[in-house]
Amino acid sequence: MLEKVWNPRLPYDTLIKDLVDIHPTASSFTLMLDKARHHANKCMQDSFKYAKERWDKSHKPPDFKIGDLILVSTLNFNNIKGPSKLKDSFAGPFMIKALNGPNSVQLELTGELMNKHPTFPVILINPYSSSDKE
């Protein structure tokens, strides 16, 4: 035997009854926007991939080892004596004491640069060869 159950009317039920139907072109417009967003994301991913391939093709990671002799760029050094246009572009040679990750090295500094912080980014150092002597 079935029991009679009271089914109350909720505020949501009255709202659904009063809602106006959405215009049919609105759903196609949202579909078009979703397709455009998906296409833009795909184009961005393709351009990121292309840029990474081009960068990796022309740049190789530095191959420094502990104990290598290197030259340090004097671009940011203010404590080297003499006029700036006459100072050497690179100072050294200095020996690599430690590798602090792929992009920085710690050096054993001597002379005027002994008071500088010994860690330098690899972009500011060049390998030293014996032909670099003056």
Could you characterize what this model shows?
With 134 residues, the chain is of the alpha+beta class. The chain has a domain at 69-132: Roll (SH3 type barrels), CATH 2.30.30. Helices cover 32% and strands 19% of the residues. It has helices spanning 11-18, 24-58; strands spanning 69-73, 90-99, 104-108, 119-121, 125-127. Strands 4-3-2-1-5 form a five-stranded antiparallel β-sheet, with no helix packed on it. A hairpin with a 4-residue loop joins strand 2 and strand 3. The radius of gyration is 34 Å and the shape is elongated. The mean pLDDT is 83. It comes from Austropuccinia psidii MF-1. Residues 67-128 form the Tf2-1-like SH3-like domain. Pfam families: SH3_Tf2-1.
SSE layout:
Layout: H1 11-18, H2 24-58, E1 69-73, E2 90-99, E3 104-108, E4 119-121, E5 125-127
Antiparallel strand pairs: 1-2, 1-5, 2-3, 3-4
